[in-house]
Please model this.
Amino acid sequence: MGTARLVTLDARPEPLEIDLDRTAVICVDMQNAFVCEGGLFDLAGWPTAGARAMIQPDKRIIEAARASGVTVVFVTMSYDPGLTNAGGPDSPNYHKEIGMVMLRKRPDLADKAIIHGTWGERIVDELTPLPGEPIVRKQRYSGFAGTNLDLVLKTASTKYCVFIGGATNICVNATLMDAFSLDYWPILVSDAVFTQCPPVTVEAACWNVENIFGWVTDTDAIVRVFEG
Model:
């Protein structure tokens, strides 16, 4: 391993020194089903404008990361056709995972949902991964549950995980907390994540990160250290 590229990130509760060579941006669930007009959430009546508003901040962060040689990893909610890896009626996932519940209510929207190979499952066009950038498919809220995300990050010698995407209080939060337990240093970019849930849930998620699980920063700050 070469000389560390150490930078100081403006964050809460205090500035954090990170090594860009050991940093990964983890973009969670920026998929057509959750973000776009005509996707599963939109057609099922869930608000999606807030998710679309995060496309540009996320793009800015991802492009700055690529330009500086920082690892970019995409995590997606993605069930196999036939829902063979989604968990049956004995699984709480069957009853509580939002996409799964909506898909059962509206099976006619399967191609707009999160079935592998469909339009709904794809990452939004503006954030299309480059060749070689990992896409980790998950079937539970946490990106670490039953996936190879830990191996992908360890292969890249990752120590610091920068989280963007959605939902702040659900999949981002679940993945971030697991990252903490696996000894990664979690960083939440508070203005580059979205949720369709009440604002108090975002407040709570950010409070938990700032005070218990990691550090909170914003888009300008993370782009500044990537570009600097």
Q: What stands out?
A: The longest strand covers residues 185-194. The domain at 16-227 is CATH 3.40.50.850 (Rossmann fold).
